[in-house]
Structure formats: C-alpha cells, structure tokens
Design brief:
The structure is a homodimer. The first copy, chain A, is built from 10 helices and no strands. The first copy, chain A, has helices spanning 11-29, 39-46, 50-56, 60-78, 89-102, 105-114, 124-148, 154-171, 179-187, 194-212.
Chain lengths: 214, 214
Amino acid sequence: MSAGFQRARRPEQIEARRTAILAAARELLAERPVADISLRELACRVGLAKSNVLRYFDSREAVFLEVLDTAWTAWLDELAFGELPAFAREERIAETIAATLAERPLLCELISAMAPVLERNISLEFARGFKLRAAANLERLASLVRAEVPELSAEAARVFARAVVVVVSGAWPYANPTEAVALATAEAGGAPGFEAVVAENLTNLLAGLVARRR
Amino acid sequence: MSAGFQRARRPEQIEARRTAILAAARELLAERPVADISLRELACRVGLAKSNVLRYFDSREAVFLEVLDTAWTAWLDELAFGELPAFAREERIAETIAATLAERPLLCELISAMAPVLERNISLEFARGFKLRAAANLERLASLVRAEVPELSAEAARVFARAVVVVVSGAWPYANPTEAVALATAEAGGAPGFEAVVAENLTNLLAGLVARRR
C-alpha cells in the first residue's frame, strides 16, 4: 500500500477513491482484454493494496461492470438516429447503432465479457443493482428504437434491444483476430468486419420484427 | 509419461493417439468450460506428457477446434426440418436449429469459445485447414436453409448461417448464470433462456431476410 493513501472515511473521500479505481480500470482496458487484467494489476495501477480496492468494490468483476454501466449509459445519452428516410429506416437505425458501437471498443469489449467473464464473480447484492440498471438501459434502448418504429410493440422493441447485446457479444471476439486467423479467414473467402456484421444482423432483426408484427 | 505409451510411428498408431486425445478433450468438456481446461490436464487425462500431446496437435486450442469441427459436422448430418407448414416456416426452421443446438451443450460451448479463446493460439497452417472446414460447414447450413426458403439468395442464406454462429456465441454464456446472477435476473423481470433467445432471434433474422429479398 503506497504511503500517500489513507483509508477514506468521509463520503467524498470514498467517492474519490472509487473514481480513481474506475479510471484505472478504463486505462487498463485500453491496453488489453478484460480477461487479462487481474485485481493485482488494477490495485497496482491505482496505488492501493488489493484488499483496499475490495473496500470500495465487491470484486474485480464488479469494478468492470461499473465501467460497463457508465459506458452503456453514455452511449445511450448520445444515441440519435437523425432524420430517417422512410425507404431505408431499418438499415439506418441498424447502421447508426453499429457505427456508434464500433467507435466504442471499450463498451463492446465489456458487453462481450459481461456473461462469460464478469458475471461469474459478483455478490447477490451487486448483481441485484447491476441487473436493475442493465434492465433500465435495455428499456431505454427499446424506447429509442420504438420512437422511430412505432408499429413495433413494446415487447418487440425489447426483443430487439436484447438482440443488440447478443449480437455485439457474439460478433466482438471476431473483431481482433490473430495474424494467422486473419490471413486464413481471408484465404477461405473472407468474412465481414465487426461493424458490417452488427449492421447486417440488426437490419435483418428489425425488418423481421416489423414483418412479423400483428 | 505413463509406461504403457510409446511414441506412435505408424499411421494407424498416430490416428489412435489422436483419437484418444480428442476423446479425453470431450470428457473434460462435459465437466467444465473450455477456458478452465489446461493442456496439462488434457495430457494427464489421456496419460501422456504435455510435449507428447503436442506431437499430435499444434496446441491445446487446436485439439478443441478439432472437437468443434467434428461436433458441428455431426449436428449438420442430423439436421432436418421435416414437413414445414407454410404459415410458420421461419419459426419452425429457427426452432429446429435452436432445439437441436440446445441438446448439444458441448457444441454450443465450443462455438461460443471459438473466437475469444480457441482462435488465439493456433498456427497459420492449422488456421488455414480449420477456416476452410468452417467455411464448408457454413455453406452446408446455408444450403439446408435455402432448400426450405428458396426465395433467399445464396448470399442471404450465407448471412443467415453466419448469424447462427454469432447468436449462439452471444447467447450461450448467459445459459449458465451463477446463482446470484440468476436470482437477480429473475427479480429484475427475468430473461428468456438460451433456446428461446436463439429461436426468437433466428426467426426474426430469417423473416427479415425474406422481407428484404429483392
């Protein structure tokens, strides 16, 4: 534990400590995948002992889920579809979502790591808060889409919002192949990139939901 | 290295050794996630030294990708859509794919681990062979679907086949939540299970591709 740090006791001290831990997590995520970042490195980066980080967060996983929650909310705050031409409404919505997510690799990385890595080691108490906030964010995305596609039911818009998470989770790991895999993929006929895969699948999902509405 | 094993030299001995390693990999996969299985454990289960396993396979990852290739081919060998009622053709195709995949957790686990875990540590030579076989399996799935939905273009059927991989990869990690996450999810309004998520999304994708055909 570095000499400059004392245990934070006042609420504003606790908040400053939490903010510093979250900032260190974001820094490390810019350097490598979340699965490769240990609690020890996170603590080291912020100048605290591991046990001290755990005074402010449940677990390493809880730190990253907090970063995810903030990035997801920031993305929604900025998400706007602009003027949509009627003839290509579904494409434009899907492309806007795909392009703005592709600009946020940290968010895509965390969405993709959410179930397989991050949700494996959190307490019931933290899971409760996180799942409620995640459900609210999904509901917000569903409402934004439904404002543009009013013929969708609330449930169909919710299905679409959940599908965004599934498609990003499934497509993101293919976004950064090793050199060998990239070369072999190109030789075997190639594969569309992350943004194209997300845009294509979300267009089809939305067109399908519109076609199937009752 | 156990006393009973000598270095295999004849083709049929090499093949027997490879078969034993693949069988041990399948056994271990029935016990825990692929990310938690080391080359050491794999070697131990089959009674070989680590270095000896690497005579027959490039890497631990190459072993699991071979298991994936075999499971994926076996699934396609059995995939049949039966008599499809015209009014619910897309649903039936999607539900058949979802139900038969849900019966094969080993295949779903390996599809889901393919990009984030398994393709990280393979040689160019192995990647070339694997990607060609994967492309052939995708083409086979596309053809099976196109036989039922002949109005799809070959490219649209290929988009659907690739989407099956993306949706399974994205949805599978949510299939086995921890107790805390399962409880918190239920309290936050619940979420559909793996088979339902795959069926719903594949139905919408297929209906969207049909609606958007030119």
